[in-house]
Amino acid sequence: MKLSVIIVNFNVKYFLEQCLFSVSKAARGIDVEVFVIDNASTDGSREWLEEKFAEIKFTWNNHNHGFAKANNQALQMAVGEYILFLNPDTILPEDCFQKSIHHLTNHPEAGALGVCMLDGSGRFLKESKRGFPTPMAAFFKLTGLSTLFPKSALFSRYHMGHLDPAVNHETDVLAGAFMLVRKKVLDITGGFDESFFMYGEDIDLSYRIQKAGYKNLYYADCPILHFKGESTRKGTLNYVRLFYGAMAIFARKHYGSMRAGIFSFSIHLAIWIRAFFSATGHFLRYLLNSLNRLLPKPLNDAKELFIAGNPEGFERILNILSKDHHQKKIPKRIATTEDQYNAIGKLEELPLLMHKMSIQEIIFCENGLSFKEIIRYCQVVPEHLRIRISANNSDSIVGSDTSLPAG
Question: Would you say the pTM of this structure is higher than 0.90?
Answer without folding.
Answer: no
